[in-house]
Structures are given as C-alpha cells and as structure tokens.
Amino acid sequence: MNILVTGAKGFVGKNLVENLKTISDGRNKLFPSLLGSIIYEYDIDTDPALLNGYCTSCDFVFNFAGVNRPKENSEFMAGNFGFASTLLDTLKRHGNKCPVMLSSSIQASLIGRYGQSDYGKSKLAGEELFFKYSAETGAPVLVYRFPNLFGKWCRPNYNSAVATFCNNIANDLPITVSDPSVELELLYIDDLVDEMIQALLGKAHHCNYDGLSPIESSEGRYCYVPVSHKVTLGRIVELLHAFKEQPVTLMMPSIASGSFEKKLYSTYLSYLPPSAVAFPLKMNVDGRGSFTELLKTASCGQVSVNISKPGITKGQHWHNSKWEFFIVVSGHGLIQERRIGSDEVLDFEVSGERIEAVHMLPGYTHNITNLSDTEDLVTVMWANEPFDPKRPDTFAEKVE
User: Fold this and answer.
1) Any idea of the CA torsion for 108, 205, 200, 53, to the nearest 10 degrees?
2) Which alpha helices (H) appear in the chain, and where do they start and end?
C-alpha cells in the first residue's frame, strides 16, 4: 500500500510516520497486510512538484497539514483550508478516489468558547470542503475532530498545555495555571495512532456529534478516537510534580494499564533533560556489603537490591504480615527459613546460574548467606509493602 502523510514532520504526522515505518519493514508484526507499504512524507519544506506523483499512486491519504499558531489570523484559512483544497484538487485531477483522512479539531464545532475561533472556522471550512469532495467524486473521507492532544514529540509553548507543563516541570522552569479546576479533554498520541492504523485497515470508528460529545454510529458523518481522558489542570500539575519527585521519594504513582497517569508519565519522561535521565540511589553500605532501595509503590510494595560479601549472612528476622521475594541474580547462596516456635529449618540453595524466586513467609524468621569465598551475592528483593519506620514489622531472631 502507498500511504501519503501530509504534515509529516508535525507532532501527529511524525508519530504516525515512524509507527508506519515499523509496520512496513516488519519490526511491528501486528499488521501483516501492511508489510512493505511505501510512506510518502509531505511537509511544508517538501518540493510541491512531488505532490503530483504522490497523489497519482497513493492508496490512502492522512492529511495532518495545517496551521496552529500563525502570525495573522488570516493565515488559518490559507493554511488549513488552502492546502486541503490543493490536495483534493490534485487527487481529483489524477482521478484518484482513494480514502482521505482529515485532521480537524473540536473547535470546528464553533460551540461555546470556540464560537469566535478563527482556527475553528478554518477547520470547519476544511471539513465542508472534504464532504463536498466526497459527494462529487465518491471518494471516502474520514473527518476526525480531535480534542487536545498530548504525547512524546509534542512541541511545548505552542499549542499544548500538557507539553508545556511537562517540559517546564522536567526542566525546572516556571508554569502558570490560572484556574486549576479547568477540565480538558485529552487524547494521547498512541491512542490516536492506533485509530489511524485501524482507519487504514478500513476499521475507523464513526460517529455523529451531540454538541461536543461524539455519539458512536456506524453511519456517522464523522470519525473519532474512542479513548480520551477528561482531567483538570490541577490534577495534571499535581501528577507532574509527583513524577518530578520520584527520583527522590522512589515512589511510583499509580500507572494502571490504559490510565491517563500511565500515558502522562510516558509523556513527561520524553521531556527530561540529559542531566535528569540518570539519578543516584542511596546505597546503605557497611562491612557486610550494601542494601539499596530501588523503587516504591503505594499499592504494590517496593523493590530493593542486596549485595552480600563472601561468607556474610544477612537477615535473621521475621515479619507478622510483610512478605517478600528473594531473587538471587548473581553468586551462590543459601536462604534459610524457620517458622517461629518451630525447630524445622527450610533450606534453599540459590544461584545466579539458575534464577528463581523464594518466598519469605510471614511468621518465619529468615536469612541469606553468601556461600562463595570470592564472589559477591546479589539479590533482588521485593516486599509487598514499602518500609515504614513507624511500623517496621521486623523482629530480630536467628534462624539457627
């Protein structure tokens, strides 16, 4: 398949193009029917003469070309309506009736605060142009009204508050929030790209609009991405400050699958300066080796790494409710556990040559010994709850 992407160097275009490349060359094997596809990239600095050739042979068009922040409002119409007209005229001239997707905006509704938006008016004019083109030629058009977008590679201080907040907080720059209670509808770039690929496969989600809300309909005039998030500015900033503090607190906020928090964290990380990509961890070092906390979570415990020098035994304590996994990843050791009040000792010989997880059972005192005379014993330890110095639930008692 030959795929034309206009606005290919913009935020959405770049994300789509790079993902299409992984599909075309086989790195992404989820869409075998698109293997070997050719992607035509067209942007403002592309030789206009190439558009003729692209429009002759393309099998699908994604039109992301447009203007968001012009110097003059009159440029909205030229950038958003004008190029769309050129694109459709070129396709028509070559008799190419392939499907054409249009990147529009919810501002095209001209509802409420969007009522006097010159940007919205230019987008609405583009929509009507596409619908008219479809009626005249019979070519399918897929018109998407996108809400606010966010994700990696989005340009800060341009047209995305989320990009600006991520960039500024990651780089210790000030932000301004006039009203934290303002709610945004946000669409994540990966969800948008997923929908574009479905559209390419003939599986676009269609809808009609009830005001600003899409209502799914297989016969709908518009198309939409079925996953978006409504979040206040205050919540966004609160999360970003928590992400900023993670290297200090080691606390990982909730990032459930599909959640806004997970998507925002990925976005935030893409704005980190080189100086913040790596950060030191506090190693608790003594003559026996070291113990370092790696990561904490509010609901899924914490992960640490323990290094024991040759011949050293560590542990010799038990817990009421806390339980752990000990996972030796390097070296040769012995883990022992004994139930409190019992003389029976459970022995587990462990090695980085055969990695396994051993439960540290509640109510069992336990230890770990480095059996090597020369090598350190490296153990990854997971506990079901972060260590709380006010309630340590840790009581010294030797196994033997």
Assistant:
1) -30
2) 11-24, 50-57, 74-76, 83-93, 118-137, 161-170, 189-200, 233-249, 260-269, 274-277
**Cα–Cα distance for residue pair 242/247, rounded to 1 Å:** 10
Pairing of strands 357-360, 222-223: unpaired
Q: What is the pTM of this model?
A: 0.91
For residues 365 and 318, give the distance between their C-alpha atoms in angstroms, rounded to a whole number. 4
Residue pair 334/359 in contact (Cβ under 8 Å)? The answer is no
Structure tokens at 271: 């704005």
Model pLDDT for residues 39-89, shown as the tens digit of each residue: 999 999 999 999 999 999 999 999 999 755 445 555 445 545 678 999 999
**Torsion angles phi and psi, residue 243, rounded to 5:** -60, -40
DSSP state at residue 325? E
Q: Which residues are catalytic?
A: 119
Residue type, 352: G
Q: Which two tokens stand for residue 259?
A: 């959640």
